[in-house]
Amino acid sequence: MAVKKYKFVDLVRIEQLRHIETTKGEGLSYASVADTDHHSDIDFEYSTFIHRLKARSQRLIQDNELTKALQHPHELFKRACRISLIAAVILGVLAAVNAVGESASLNIYWLLVVLLGFNLLSILLWVVGITFNMQRLSTGVAAQLVSWLPYREKKKDTRQSLASSAWWQCCLTGNIGKWRFSVLTHKFWLTYLASGLVMLILLMIARQYNFIWGTTLLSESSLPALTQSLAVPIEYLGLIAPDVNQIAASRIGVSEQNDETRTAWASFLLGAFLIYGIFPRLILLGISTVMQKWSERNYKLDLYLPYYIDLRQRLMSAAVKARVIDADPHPKVVVDRPDVPPKVDIKAIPSKAQAIGIELDRHMVWPDSVTVCGNIINQQSHDDAIKAVKKIKTPLLIGVAIHRLPDRGVQRIVKELVEVSTGKPRLILLHKQSATSVDNTRKLAWFRLAEACGISAEHVITQ
């Protein structure tokens, strides 16, 4: 198994370069990467290709002084995160002060609802959003503002704006964005709760409060029973919770409270803050952090984009030398001109490879080292090809005409050949003897067909 030689930040940097090169490539210097082209490999490996892309990107970044532009969106995001956490501190302090107010008597259940109610509602919305993949529910308002503010720049098609757009797509969308926003949301609420808890402790140190409770619609035993249920995990922390007599004595209008009752209620309040507020957020923060790292580790570049297809052909060359299988019976008179041999990589074709063509004419050009076993043009040749492929033990090549538009019929045949083959077939895109250039859109369509049939990009060979 190949050792992973790259990190998520390397993939983000490569994606940022893709955006810049695609739009502003003419303004970049490529002198330092000229010697990285035209490598060849028998078996393509994703990690090897990414390693070469990483080395290429490092040279381009250094030569074109792109470091600041590529780091700019990440710095903006960190700055926006700090602002949101500062806002959480302020909101937590204000919530604690307003919940306590100027009164010396505090309604314990109303205090818990005010301080923990919105936090519990936020957790429920987050769980629903994650379960049903609803990003607006799984991310809080602060996280959405953080994602919106830095990346709505008015300037278009500058290196910095292109790098920001690429960073936003990699880091703030999909699974990675979902868990990154979840981490920020849980950090926001943890900061809010922690600042509120600290403020509550300071207020209860400086002032004396009586804790009371009361109800109009519920029965007299409902709230005491709720208190005893909530107190069970709090007592495991070693904190004191009010007993039955202290709960009964704290009902509104019964009597004045003593020091022990006030201390028990204060411990109950702080314990509830920890058990039902801070601890769940810590657990969810841990889960979100692990899932973010896992998503980043499993993130892969879309190698079927024209930019990566071009680089794959240059950095992991699969170009081959071709020959004419059936000569034209009526050759045309050709004016003598210098013949410049193409650059060739014989190793791109596996040794002893056998090939099956799909609706090819006699003018198609095959590589020298390939043995052509058949050409599917009708039902009989299709059945014969299926039988032949089942018996082939050597590497299989499936030949198609690159100038044709891929259709569902060709895709169905390719998929059938892949399913009955014993190894990992390769798709080879063939030209005619007098071939005209094929645009990248047509070539990309064949790569997409290969992907749909279970043939990876590294097993698509072009001439």
Order of helices and strands: HHHEHHHHHEHHHHEEEEHEHEHE
Form type? elongated
Lateral strand order in the biggest sheet: 6-4-7-8-9
Biggest pleated sheet: 5 strands, parallel
Structural class: alpha/beta
How far is it from the N-terminal to the C-terminal residue, by CA?
Answer: 29 Å
**Residue runs with pLDDT of under 50 for 5 or more positions:** 319-347
What fraction strand? Answer: 5-15%
How much helicity do the residues have? 55-70%
* Integer count of domains: 2
- Output the number of helix runs: 15
Whole-angstrom Rg: 34 Å
Number of beta strands: 9
What value does the average pLDDT take?
84
What does this structure look like?
The protein has 463 residues and is α/β, with parallel strands linked by helices. The protein folds into two domains: 68-297, no CATH class; 318-329 and 344-462, no CATH class. 56% of the residues lie in helices and 8% in strands. The chain has 15 helices and nine strands. The chain has helices at residues 8-24, 46-64, 67-100, 108-131, 135-138, 141-148, 159-171, 174-206, 222-236, 244-249, 259-297, 306-315, 379-391, 408-420, 440-452, and strands at residues 105-107, 210-212, 322-324, 354-358, 365-367, 371-376, 396-401, 426-430, 460-462. α4 (108-131) packs parallel to α11 (259-297). The chain starts with 7 loop residues before the first helix and ends with a strand.
Q: Summarize this, please?
A:
With 463 residues, the protein is α/β, with parallel strands linked by helices. 56% of the residues lie in helices and 8% in strands. The two termini are 29 Å apart.
